[in-house]
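Retry 2 of 3 after timeout on previous attempt. Resubmitting structure tokens to design endpoint.
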């Protein structure tokens, strides 16, 4: 997982305004405009979430579902950038659900962002079928039987397929998305063939794909993919995304700009024919 620099809040009493878990750290994004408390020792989001939140292109009044929302960072970014959308965070870990509630409260987003506690493998009893315009997901990257699992439960569940496999995630998304609705995911480049085949098996046709590199001249690390439910057979391969300009260097101008809040008008987003 790639690390992300976060700005620490100056106000040490922030936890007193709402029932924030005592083990969390109150961090911010967008030059302090967006509060995002996250665990001090458990799962902490990485730059992957920022990349995915800026890859998706919501439309006006979209209903968005955030599968495996963690502390809710992707939904918080989308809610801040797109004031006309509504979002639902689905998260199985109670400690992270508490953080989502806290973050919603501190950013006064309770009118547009709600939380559902539950297992995405049992999604049929948690959210309505075929009613979401867009689903976003930053799923576990590693199979349960590969690599060393973190001893911290929050981190282990977020990184390894302990609670849900790739098939489970995609099936849950397919259930929740309406026909012609979209799913946006970020996934390791090394497993992109598994992701694409799983999407197509569940009638989610890949439409946009952007390959992510740490910096020019190295192998890809991640892929951003958008698929359309019951879409046609056409894929747009977008320009590569470089996070840093060189080893140990600064963020590229594109990525650097994503750390500064700029609200978007969903109705003005230019979507190609490949999104249908």
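Retry 2 succeeded. Sequence:
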């Amino acid at each position: 997982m790639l690390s992300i620099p976060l700005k620490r809040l100056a106000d040490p009493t922030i936890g007193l305004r709402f029932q924030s878990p005592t083990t969390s750290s109150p961090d911010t994004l967008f030059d302090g405009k967006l509060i995002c408390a996250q665990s001090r020792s458990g799962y902490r989001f990485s730059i992957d979430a920022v990349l995915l939140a800026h890859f998706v292109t919501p439309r006006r009044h979209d209903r968005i579902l955030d599968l495996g929302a963690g502390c809710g960072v992707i939904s918080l970014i989308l809610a801040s950038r797109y004031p006309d959308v509504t979002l639902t965070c689905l998260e199985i870990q109670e400690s992270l659900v508490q953080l989502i509630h806290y973050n919603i409260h501190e950013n006064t987003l309770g009118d547009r962002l709600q939380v559902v506690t539950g297992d995405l493998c049992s999604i049929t009893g948690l959210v309505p079928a075929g009613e979401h315009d867009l689903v976003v997901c930053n799923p576990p990257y590693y199979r349960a039987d590969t690599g060393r699992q973190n001893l911290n439960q929050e981190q282990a569940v977020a990184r390894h397929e302990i609670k849900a496999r790739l098939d489970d995630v995609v099936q849950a998304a397919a259930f929740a998305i309406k026909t012609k609705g979209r799913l946006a995911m970020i996934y390791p480049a090394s497993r992109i063939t598994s992701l694409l085949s799983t999407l197509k098996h569940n009638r989610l046709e890949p439409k946009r794909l952007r390959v992510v590199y740490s910096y020019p001249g190295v192998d890809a690390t991640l892929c951003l993919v958008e698929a359309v439910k019951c879409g046609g057979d056409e894929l747009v391969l977008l320009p590569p995304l470089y996070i840093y300009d060189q080893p140990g260097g600064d963020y590229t101008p594109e990525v650097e700009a994503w750390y500064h809040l700029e609200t978007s008008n969903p109705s003005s987003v230019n979507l190609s024919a490949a999104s249908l």
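Attempt log closed. The chain is about 25% helix and 25% strand.
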